[in-house]
Specification:
Elements: H1 7-19, H2 24-32, E1 37-40, E2 46-51, H3 52-62, E3 70-73, E4 78-83, E5 98-100, E6 105-108, E7 118-122, H4 133-140
Helix pairs in contact: 3-4
């Protein structure tokens, strides 16, 4: 049974990710050569790095809350959450998350497929929506994120 995946959001996410690179043509050349492309953090987003298992649990806890892009690497068991650059301080002191400074390079596969053990757990959608660091901190905290009713998500 074939699954119909709408291609427009994938293409828009691909274009958005390219637009975040200082040299989009170089990124596209790397992807065309089946290589990861280093995209520096800074004006568009910062990166919060965490263990993959904790990230999967946090994503589950967040439930239907919209996630920003999350890149994972199954070989290293790491995940990288794309965060708003001006709000990363909301993760200061959160155990298990390391926020990388501007200029740190995230080695990304294209949005359209996995590459070198890396795949997008949550795809860039082209809108520039990023993960809310306050919700992410709550999801990583003791007991995890809680819905408005007080029940664990």
């Amino acid at each position: 049974m074939a699954t119909n995946i709408p291609l427009a959001p994938v293409r828009e996410g691909h274009a958005w990710l390219l637009s975040c690179a200082p040299d989009p043509a170089a990124v596209q050349r790397a992807w065309d050569a089946q290589q990861l492309a280093p995209i520096p953090t800074g004006p568009h987003w910062l990166v919060g790095e965490a263990q993959l298992s904790r990230s999967l649990d946090a994503a589950r806890r967040l439930g239907s809350r919209p996630l920003g892009p999350v890149l994972t690497d199954v070989r290293t068991s790491l995940a990288w959450w794309l965060l708003p650059p001006g709000q990363a301080g909301n993760l200061d002191g959160v155990a298990g998350i390391t926020v990388h400074p501007p200029g740190w390079k995230l080695h990304c596969p294209p949005v359209v497929h996995s590459l070198a053990h890396r795949w997008w757990l949550a795809l860039p959608d082209g809108t520039g929506h990023l993960t809310d660091p306050i919700l992410l901190a709550a999801a990583f905290g003791p007991g995890g994120y809680r819905t408005d009713t007080g029940a664990p998500a």
